[in-house]
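Example 253.
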Amino acid sequence: MKEYIVAGNWKSNKSYLDAKGYVVKLNDYPPLDVKTILAVPAIYADTLFQLSKQKNVAIALQNASSYDDGAYTGEISAKMIASLAIPYCIVGHSERRKLLGETDEQIADKIDQLYLHKITPILCIGETMEERNTGETFNIIRRQLLKGVRSLISDSSFPIIIAYEPIWAIGTGITATEEQAGEVHEFIFQILSEVLGKEKAETIPLLYGGSCNEKNAEALFRQKHIWGGLIGGASLELDSFYNIMRIAAKCNA
Ligand code: PGA
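Predicted structure in complex with 2-phosphoglycolic acid:
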């Protein structure tokens, strides 16, 4: 049974005051029956976690260290995240893969750190436009996915959320069509079924991300293997994010 999830990714946006204002305002909106995750800048996470009273809304981080505690200046370890009781963390976002050179191997190490501290990773995978045009989409997805779920292959009790985010759709205003997204989600489900078994694959939420907004969300969310969205730009403004939550709640009903 699909249980929809709407995850917002604020990236490196919002002042401390704006961030607090958003969460306080959201507290007063009517609660919705949809699991919601807000991935906020790490520096505000604890304050927002303390402030957030909205039912079904969890605060998350956008990245974690691939190392344990120790001499890693500037890194935020999974152990630290767990000590704030933050339950989710994005890993492998394409902006980090591209701008900071994160590799599949490092991302898999981050996921292992999160598992050590019982945090659910939200693993982002996706192809560039060039890869799509040269017919590489499925190879890229398979490679990123298999590395990302490597620990689940030996212990399938670990949780994971997967976000398919075609890089050409992120922040561009160009959304994948329902057919394009649906096809890749079907492929992800098939790979997960092969390596983890169909029963486990059916429990793994698969989110779509990339210029998802209140106008296109419903058509995407209605695809068989799409369980909701990872929302960047449209999560920055509370009303548009709340409208997407509403759409997911409707799909849940
Ligand atoms: P976007 O970003 O919704 O602004 O395209 C999505 C993401 O990068 O997670």
